[in-house]
Write a structure and sequence with these properties.
It comes from Microvenator marinus. The chain contains 9 helices and 8 strands. By secondary structure, the protein is of the alpha/beta class. The protein has one domain: Alpha-Beta Barrel (TIM Barrel). It is globular and about 50 Å long.
Length: about 270
């Protein structure tokens, strides 16, 4: 029996407002586990999209993708599929939002080749990026093109202020919520788009072909909160990294199962 059906399946989401997926899709360790053994790398996206309706593109963190690459992603994914993507580190980590307008617009222009499949664009900052750069962030947000979804991930506790939250609300920018790290489970929603990243320690596992850590308790904490957000009109994008438990597709599946169970039995849980 083939691992995947001959034709794409009709994916039934837990909730139209919930987009679940993994951080990236091109991992050799998934061959023979998530992907059929020997599947050419160029066909992985099509197979991934039979199981999940969204993905966080990790490769854009290392550089703006070519326009043809983005067009290829669009062509190889089904209708209704959504891509989220990280801004390049040259913007967030090297320039730290200063004097990088040209690169910003080039990145956004290329990513808009995804059309209706383009989801949130994530500005992920290093732990050393503190609120002393508040003015730089304010100016940068002011210059971003309208009509797109933006999300910010900060890792320095100095950002946890009402002033920062108000800035994000003013521009309709989402605050990335993380399950690990110095700001884990920080509970603040700043826009109708809520972005959750299930991360882990980058040196925790050396391979990613199986789940190596039980994360059930952590997922149980998030499930009622995800439903609370969607019940109040929000849209949730949640992505699991391989470093979180060792093999992200199974963790996404478990989260999906818990979300469905909560819908069927709302009296159970928080």
């Amino acid at each position: 029996m083939a691992l995947f059906p001959e034709k794409p399946i009709e994916y039934e989401p837990v909730n139209p407002r919930i987009y679940l997926g993994t951080a990236g899709w091109s991992y050799d360790d998934w061959d023979g586990v998530f992907y059929p053994e020997g599947l050419p790398p160029g066909q992985r996206l099509q197979h991934y999209a039979k199981r999940f309706r969204s993905v966080e593109i990790d490769s854009t963190f290392y550089g703006t993708p070519a326009r043809k690459t983005v067009q290829h992603w669009y062509e190889k994914s089904p209708d209704g599929f959504v891509f989220s993507a990280k801004f390049p580190r040259s913007i967030t980590h090297d320039a730290r939002l200063v004097n990088c307008a040209d690169e910003t617009y080039r990145f956004i222009e290329n990513m808009t080749e995804l059309g209706e499949k383009l989801g949130p664009l994530l500005l992920q900052f290093p732990p050393s990026f503190s609120a002393s750069a508040f003015g730089d962030l304010e100016r940068y947000l002011h210059g971003l093109p309208d009509g797109l979804m933006y999300v910010i991930e900060v890792r320095h506790p100095s950002w946890l202020t009402d002033e920062f939250a108000d800035l994000l609300k003013t521009w309709g920018v989402g605050l990335c919520l993380a399950c690990d790290g110095p700001l884990s489970r920080f509970w603040r929603v700043t826009s109708r788009v809520v972005y959750i990243r299930f991360l882990g320690d980058h040196d925790a596992f050396d391979t990613f072909e199986s789940v190596r850590r039980d994360r059930s308790e952590d997922l149980d904490w998030w499930v009622p909160r995800i439903h609370h957000i969607t019940d109040h009109g929000g849209v949730v994008f949640a992505y699991v990294n391989n470093h979180y438990a060792g093999y992200s597709p199974d963790v996404v599946g478990l989260l999906e199962e818990k979300l469905r169970s909560r819908l069927a039995n709302p009296e159970n849980g928080e």
